[in-house]
Design goal:
Blueprint (H helix, E strand, L loop, with lengths): L1 H59 L10 H11 L21 H4 L1 H23 L6 H18 L4
The structure holds heme C.
The site of heme C has 24 residues, from helix 1, helix 4 and helix 5.
Length: 158
Amino acid sequence: MQQPARLVRGMCFGIALTLGLGLGAAAQVHAFEEIEAKIDYRQGAMRAIGGNMASLAAVIVDGVEDYRDNLALHARFIVDMSRDIPGLFPEGTDFGETNALPAIWENWERYEQLSEDTHQAAVRLLEAIEAGEANLGPRFREVGQSCTACHDDFRHRD
Ligand code: HEC
């Protein structure tokens, strides 16, 4: 009588294990997709910052006057988007299709500081634009240098 009972118990364990593994794998796929989506979001946000920098450069550096009225709009986007760059880098988003270096999570305070530097530089540029300052070049370059300062140490160069 003991044999079949053990068999049933064994089968139950087998089924539970299969289900458990199945669910575990599904959860893992889901978690991976979520990480990929977060990486897509931050890369999109970074490209948008880059696009706004390119538009600012066309007016401030290359002198395209037609779009001067849009300067504040572009600077404001960078001010807003750089308020929390570290928030775009939650732990665990350091693998897959990303150029984010693991050093980010090992030097988190410095990372936060570099993000704050970009934010403050963008705020100063926006203030200069709103004050109608004629020579915006130095303020613009400050923003650009702050981007490079972070990319140099924390972004993988292909
Ligand atoms: C605090 C660090 C930090 C600052 C400041 C920063 N970036 Fe980035 N940026 C990164 C990292 C890290 C990546 C790589 C992200 C990835 O691949 O997941 C990146 C990626 C990018 C990309 C490529 C996005 C893509 O297509 O994959 C662009 C463009 C970019 N940044 C522009 C800028 C500009 C312009 C500024 C300044 C206004 C700036 N970044 C400021 C850390 C920073």
